[in-house]
Amino acid sequence: MRMIFIGPPGAGKGTQAARLVDRYAIPHISTGDMFRAAVKNGTPLGKKAAEYMNAGKLVPDEVTIGLVRERIAQDDAKEGFLLDGFPRTVPQAEALKEALAADGVSLDAVLLLEVDDQLIVDRIVGRRSDPETGTIYHLQFNPPPAEIMDRLVHRKDDTEEACRARLDAYHAQTAPLVPFYDAEGLLKRVDGVGKPDQVTERIVAALA
Ligand code: AP5
């Protein structure tokens, strides 16, 4: 199964991806996680990406496309993958299509997680993640256990200001992927509002 998640920041892509990869036995490939790892390790890629990420802007296509092409060529992605946060622009979508076609394969589904902008801001500002387990929490919607509060991370781009910039980038640069994939017959719209379990059920039903 080769599928991708699109949707605004904070729509729940990472939360749902963690559940789906076990069910479909495919790797979860998140460009956001790859960039954050590069930033943490202080690599040249990380230094370049950090300035865009902190401002809520997209990292340039030429950087992002090369990174994903290398990642999906690895052995664990040969039989399938769940791409989370890529593509995010039409040139990225075209590059992905070309890379897959060169291997004689294509996407099976594109999941669009739909959540309104105001709810997005609430979700983003309250998000905390556990660096030890990778679990994503929310101070109100999915509260972390009290004993791990001290080690939780609040992402630098999870301020209200950066969130609004990310939403602007989503509407301007990523939303055009909706008609792009609709025209290819791949788009599955999923309501992302509700309990995470309900959203998972909707996704599984959409993929059935
Ligand atoms: P990235 O890490 O991909 O961020 P994003 O798309 O903005 O998505 P998020 O990780 O913020 O949200 P999510 O949808 O995964 O939501 P989550 O499950 O955590 O990218 C970060 C940056 O990297 C970009 O801004 C850009 O600079 C760069 N970048 C990455 N890819 C790029 C690309 N392809 N091209 C160029 N630049 C790129 O959930 C959010 C919160 O809501 C959590 O607290 C969670 O607990 C809570 N929650 C989840 N589901 C529910 C629910 N059903 N009900 C209530 N709360 C919920």
Architecture (CATH level 2) name of the domain at 2-26 and 79-115 and 175-207: 3-Layer(aba) Sandwich
Class by helix and strand content? alpha/beta
> How large is the share of residues in beta strands?
5-15%
> At the third CATH level, what is the topology name of the domain at 2-26 and 79-115 and 175-207?
Rossmann fold
Work out the helix count. 9
- Rg value: 16 Å
Helix percent reads: 40-55%
| Ligands present | BIS(adenosine)-5'-pentaphosphate
Largest sheet: 5 strands, parallel
The stretches of 5 or more residues where confidence is low (pLDDT under 50) are none
What does this structure look like?
The chain has 208 residues and is of the alpha/beta class. The chain has 9 helices and 7 strands; from the N terminus they run E-H-E-H-H-H-E-H-E-H-E-E-H-H-E-H. The protein starts with a strand and ends with a helix. It has a domain at 2-26 and 79-115 and 175-207: Rossmann fold, CATH 3.40.50.300. Strands 2-3-1-4-7 form a 5-stranded parallel β-sheet, sandwiched between helices. A two-stranded antiparallel sheet has the order 5-6. The longest helix is centred in the last third of the chain and has 15 residues, at 160-174. It is 49% helix and 14% strand. It binds BIS(adenosine)-5'-pentaphosphate. The site of BIS(adenosine)-5'-pentaphosphate (AP5) has 37 residues, from helix 1, helix 2, helix 3, strand 6 and helix 9.
What structural keywords apply?
two-stranded antiparallel sheet, binds BIS(adenosine)-5'-pentaphosphate, single chain, 208 residues, alpha/beta, 9 helices, Rossmann fold, five-stranded parallel sheet
